[in-house]
Design brief:
The protein is built from 4 helices and 6 strands. It is α+β, with helices and mostly antiparallel strands. The termini are close together.
C-alpha cells in the first residue's frame, strides 16, 4: 500500500504473502522478464505492500533488454536504476546492519554478476534468483546495497 506521499508501506501480515511469493518463485525456472531477479524483487515488494513498483518498466526477454528497462530510470547499472525507482516509492538506501526482512538487496555472485533479491524471513540471509543456479540464499553480509521498505 502506498501512503499519500507515494511511499510504499508494508500491509498487515505482510510476511505471509512474502513467504508464499518466495516459495512460488523459488520453484519456477529462471526466465528473463518473467522469473528473473528483478521481477522477483518487484513481486516480493508487491506481496508486502500491494503496490506494483515494476509497472511501467517495460517488457524484456533477455539480459541486455532487462538492463535497459531499469537503466531507463537514469542509472548506468541495474542497481543505480533501482536506486531511482526505489526513491520514487519512498524506499531509502539501507546499510547492511539496517536491512530488515523483505527489503530489496543487491550482491555480486561468484562470477561477478549483479543480482537482486530480498532479505529472507530469517533475517540472516537474502534470497536471489540467478540464471545459472535458480534460487540461492546468501548471508546478508554479502549484500552490498539494500533499500528499506517503509
Amino acid at each position: 500500500m502506498a501512503g499519500t506521499d507515494g511511499t510504499v508501506r508494508r500491509q498487515d501480515n505482510w510476511h505471509v504473502p512474502l513467504r508464499e511469493e518466495i516459495a512460488k518463485s523459488s520453484g519456477m525456472p529462471f526466465s528473463w522478464g518473467r522469473n528473473d531477479c528483478v521481477q522477483f524483487v518487484f513481486r516480493c515488494v508487491k506481496a508486502q505492500t500491494g503496490t506494483d513498483i515494476g509497472k511501467g518498466t517495460g517488457k524484456y526477454r533477455g539480459e541486455r533488454s532487462a538492463m535497459k528497462a531499469l537503466v531507463k530510470y537514469g542509472g548506468k547499472t541495474i542497481d543505480e536504476g533501482f536506486d531511482i525507482l526505489a526513491e520514487k516509492y519512498g524506499m531509502k538506501k539501507a546499510g547492511k546492519l539496517l536491512l530488515k526482512r523483505g527489503d530489496p538487496v543487491c550482491f555480486y555472485d561468484d562470477e561477478e554478476n549483479l543480482c537482486m533479491g530480498v532479505v529472507d524471513l530469517d533475517g540472516a540471509h537474502a534470497v536471489f534468483l540467478t540464471k545459472d543456479s535458480g534460487a540461492v540464499k546468501v548471508p546478508t553480509s554479502r549484500c552490498y546495497r539494500g533499500w528499506s521498505i517503509g
